[in-house]
Amino acid sequence: xxxxxxxxxxxxxxxxxxxxxxxxxxxxxxxxxxxxxxxxxxxxxxxxxxxxxxxxxxxxxxxxxxxxxxxxxxxxxxxxxxxxxxxxxxxxxxxxxxxxxxxxxxxxxxxxxxxxxxxxxxxxxxxx
Length: 128
What we know:
Blueprint: H1 12-67, E1 73-79, E2 82-90, E3 95-103, E4 109-117, E5 123-127
Antiparallel strand pairs: 1-2, 2-3, 3-4, 4-5
């Protein structure tokens, strides 16, 4: 005797759909995690690049002050795709303040402020 279509009880199609849906969810989660991880890594690299460029700006101004002890002002430079703004203030109390700001891509900004003693231009205070 032949069974009618309405009497068949199959589980292959619902199982295949469920397995496909689970695989799709896992694949989507993996792709989303990879994209977030790449973005996070990129931001970390930009922070490192901005910090390094700002530190280089401090070193450049220390060297300039050794050659031109009374120099003060503002200078803008570019190192490895990072814009750096360096400002030097003569405090008048035997100290010099340098503020160096590195601006990288993705809106990343790192600021370093140092205070130098004015004889040998060594750093006596560091913030950033």
